[in-house]
Design brief:
The chain is mainly alpha-helical. Helices cover 67% and strands 2% of the residues. The chain is built from 17 helices and 4 strands. The strands form 2 sheets. A two-stranded antiparallel sheet has the order 1-2. Strands 3-4 form a two-stranded antiparallel ribbon.
């Protein structure tokens, strides 16, 4: 019984969809209504009714097409998750206010034009891009997953080969813009991996399955260690494993995949005096209080002396290195108190819980993998930065998302939230339809 081409049913479905303004839902709604109508027609035909009369009775049973369309429009209209927007705006405001206060009080030891003005520019640019991404159908990215993965690796190789060095790290130079591509590459790779794994069948009986996954993990890790950036290697590895697990891989398979990268990372730390010094500073910062242990000791002391309500912006200039980037959380706690530090952690945790709730609501497999990978990326950076300032994690280049000063990093973080909001808008849409 082919009712899809029945003129009366097509007219009815067209009338319903004419009331639904969001076209992305039309195909899915038409299929659901057609399935329901088919069940009714079959039921009437089993009672002895001719097909033409059965169709008419089924459509009468469905009700007025225009009224049904209006109801479905209300149910399926795209929504914005305002709680996420509000928390993101709060963190952006906190970051800008902190940078402004540091600048006007002369606490920044950076020889550059106004970091506050530049941060406003980066924030506005990131917000504008995020708004555009919010209205973009993220599902269109899936078909370009392999292109994005390979393209990211090719750009990374170019940066390693030709990129100008800044603090021993290669940058991507585009005219008057310099981009920290090494630290932003995990973002592009996360989008690519989510799209690739969305269609992945974790059949370990096929030898090439293990080899492909292993290769996809190792090539970026090796490029990150060559850059050199342990943070990029660490971040990409964890995000890769998160997406891998959510896509259906077993724990034992993940353990098998991670064994070699873990050994390579340990080797790169042990053979690099600078990285070993950072690890030793974590274990015993007092061993070298004027060297590698200096940042840890100063951060811990600033937090310890903050009190419940803070000491204001009267910290002597230069006391906290990287006060506008890696150690901005220590500055916030010192200035506003332990209560403010706890509020930041609670607010961020609430944000991540809210985003993970979005992941459970998304019907599209690719969307779920994207949310899992992107929120994992943000959580790693946020909690590592907090633990680092408390002396509970090794010093690394993880800034506090949305709060620390940053150019390309801040824009990428805002784009991530734009993607998350885009996924939430389309949480009821199934890509296959």
């Amino acid at each position: 019984m082919d009712l899809e081409h029945n003129e009366n049913i097509r007219t009815y479905l067209d009338a319903v969809c004419s009331q639904i303004k969001w076209r992305d839902m039309h195909a899915q709604i038409r299929m659901e209504l057609l399935s329901h109508i088919s069940e009714l027609v079959e039921e009437y035909e089993q009672g002895g009714t001719l097909e033409e009369d059965a169709v008419k009775q089924a459509l009468d049973h469905m009700g007025n097409a225009l009224e049904l369309g209006k109801n479905l429009h209300y149910i399926h209209r795209p929504r914005i998750e305002w709680s996420i927007v509000a928390i993101v705006a709060s963190f952006l405001g906190l970051g800008l206010f902190t940078l402004y206060s540091l600048e006007v009080n002369g606490l920044l030891m950076v020889k550059a034009s106004s970091l506050f003005i530049r941060s406003i520019i980066f924030t506005l640019a990131g917000v504008l891009i995020a708004v555009g991404v919010n209205f973009f159908n993220y599902q269109n990215l899936k078909s370009f997953s392999w292109h994005l993965y390979i393209g990211t690796l090719l750009v990374w190789l170019y940066v390693l080969w030709q990129g100008p060095l800044y603090m021993d790290k290669p940058y991507l130079h585009l005219g008057f813009i310099s981009i920290d591509f090494v630290e932003t590459a995990p973002f592009f790779l996360a989008i690519a991996i989510a799209g690739i794994f969305a269609d992945w069948d974790w059949d370990w009986h096929q030898p090439n399955c293990l080899l492909k996954a292993f290769t996809m993990l190792m090539i970026p890790v090796i490029l990150a260690l060559m850059s050199p950036s342990m943070t990029a290697a660490f971040l990409y590895t964890l995000v890769f494993l998160i997406i891998m697990r959510v896509s259906g891989a077993k724990i034992k398979d993940i353990g098998l995949i991670i064994s070699f990268p873990l050994a390579l990372t340990i080797f790169s730390v042990v053979t690099c005096p600078y990285r070993m010094a950072r690890l030793e500073a974590l274990l015993n910062p007092r061993q070298d209080p004027q060297g590698m242990g200096y940042m840890v000791m100063q951060s811990i002391e600033a937090i310890r002396s903050a009190g419940f309500w803070g000491q204001g912006f009267n910290l002597p200039a230069g006391t906290l290195p990287c006060v506008h980037t890696e150690l901005i959380f220590a500055c916030i706690v010192y200035s506003f108190g332990w209560v403010a530090g706890l509020a930041v952690v609670v607010l961020a945790t609430a944000l991540f819980i809210r985003i993970l709730r979005v992941a459970r609501l998304v019907k599209d497999r690719y969307g779920r993998l994207l949310v899992s990978g992107l929120v994992g990326m943000l959580m790693i950076q946020f909690y590592w930065n907090i633990l680092m300032t408390l002396g509970l994690a090794p010093l690394a280049g993880f800034s506090l998302p949305l709060v620390s000063y940053g150019g390309s990093q801040l824009i990428v973080q805002l784009v991530i939230f734009g993607l998350l909001l885009s996924i939430y808008r389309r949480k009821d849409v199934v890509a296959a339809l």
